[in-house]
Amino acid sequence: MGTARFAVVVMSNLSPTELSELAGIAAELGALLQQIGDESRLAAANGPHHTDHAALLAQIASNAERAQILHRHFASRLLDGATAEAASRLADAEAAPPPVTVTPPKLESIIMANPTGSRELILIADDDAADLRQTETILTDADYRVITARDGFKAIELYTRLWAAIDLVILDFALPGLSGDLIFDELLGINPKVAAVVSGGFHQPAKLSAMLAKGLAGFMPKPFDRDKLLHQVASVIARRPR
């Protein structure tokens, strides 16, 4: 099957919503690749002895990791719309990119709210500053330790580094860059026993159902009620897989 014909087969099996998601992922990936190219040319022009060379290389590596995540999900969405025969041919033709190895830093190097708290460590991923502060305050007042992320890529980065120390992830469904279901897939790839709850996303019940089937621990509506939030957090942590 030729490339053009394969694309027609795949696209015809995708819904308008899925096609829109693909377009968004493709646009984000294109922007990242452009940024990587610009940064690479700048690094080459400046040379290895420039004062910003190390920081620039670190930024290139970070953007390359983000591009790899987007590539995986773009390919996954395409395969979801392919026939079994077409998917098999695509898998034979293109091997998955090698995983990026990230050296875990010390926990002390991470910015944490209430670092001396006596209770578990919780990662909150939310792009709404007010919601993030409210959730963090409720949890730290209850003596939980908290780290935060304002987008999906940062949440994945933090979980990649600290998954063994993180007891619970509270994930906003509508984060910029990557939606909640894609981020949850990445967290599962890092730790199949990840304890996570999602906030929002109730307009996409099919995706929430799929996340629950994969092991999502629950979901909660916004705005958060203090007592209900603390009850659900304690309940999920108590029954999380070990």
List keywords for this structure.
2 domains; disordered N terminus; 9 helices; alpha/beta; 5-stranded parallel β-sheet; Rossmann fold; globular; 242 residues
Task: Outline the secondary-structure elements.
Layout: H1 3-12, H2 16-46, H3 53-80, H4 84-93, E1 121-125, H5 129-141, E2 145-149, H6 152-162, E3 168-172, H7 180-190, E4 196-199, H8 205-214, E5 218-220, H9 226-238
What does this structure look like?
The chain is globular, with a radius of gyration of 20 Å. Helix 5 links the parallel strand 1 and strand 2. The protein has a five-stranded parallel beta sheet with strand order 2-1-3-4-5, with helices on both faces. By secondary structure, it is an alpha/beta fold. Helix 6 packs parallel to helix 7. It folds into two domains: 91 residues; 132 residues, Rossmann fold. It is built from nine helices and five strands. 57% of the residues lie in helices and 9% in strands.
